[in-house]
Amino acid sequence: TLLHHRTYQLLFALHLLGPTHYGVDTPTTTPHQLLILAPSALTLTLGYLLLPLTTDIYLRFNRLLLSPSEKARLTARVAHLATSRANTIDTQAAEIRRIERDLHDGAQARLVALGMNLGMAEHIVEQDPQAARTMLTQARETTRHALTELRDLVRGIQPPVLVERGLHGAVHALALTHNLPITVTIDLHGRPADPVESAAYFAIAELLTNTAKHAHATHAWVHINHGQNRLVITVTDNGTGGADPTPGSGLAGIRRRLDAFDGTMNITSPPGGPTIVTLEIPCALSSPKTLPSSEKA
Fold first, then answer.
1. What is the DSSP string of 66-107?
2. Which end of the chain is more exposed for a tag (fewer CB within 10 A), N or C?
3. Residues 292, 173 share a domain
4. With a threshold of 0.85, does the pTM exceed it?
């Protein structure tokens, strides 16, 4: 190349190369040396100064040639959104079927039994008051169980603490229900939209459940903050590691849940631990609120 040629010229002019390189005698006079040295030094200086610019142009040209076109990017984006939308619809349909099944097998069955007990008690209250009293006691117990099942079902759909206190209060309350010590640190100056808040809450709940069941950890940490229009959640434990989002697993379900919001999940879980799961969900926050920054559950 030109720079190589000029480098040889420079070395030749400085008597650092022999005559075999150019087939002429080594220059011995100052004018002769300057005649060879000046263009070589000028070329090398220009090459040094222009190297960042030419490298940038080279990289941009390659990126232009090799990167996908705008049409290809849009096509891939549409395909991704279509897949995530289909997964979301499937997940919602499965959730509706679960709610229907729980209502049918749980609260509905108990309410039917309650109606039967009350009807029988009504018919025998005059002939056998003691039996009627026993049926009313059973009816009261059935009512209590039905209410408990309905509350559990509501918590599975949208926990009341999440509605009332937001992600901050709900995650702290969730941490208190675990036997595993969990340190929760939250730095949010507002609340995300309800669907995002719900998705984040259930993702954290699933991760903490996996930690308690499979990680053999002695401590876990949950950190939540918001920046650059993204809700960032980090769940860490000091367990044995090896977490893998295989199809059908809870981690794969979390990824499908986040896809509906164009969110991402990154997992670092080497053998021996620790496991670090980072969730990012694009969203904005509502009006700022004064919230405590951290608490150990």
1. HSPPHHHHHHHHHHHHHHHHHHHHHHHHHHHHHHHHHIIIII
2. N
3. yes
4. no
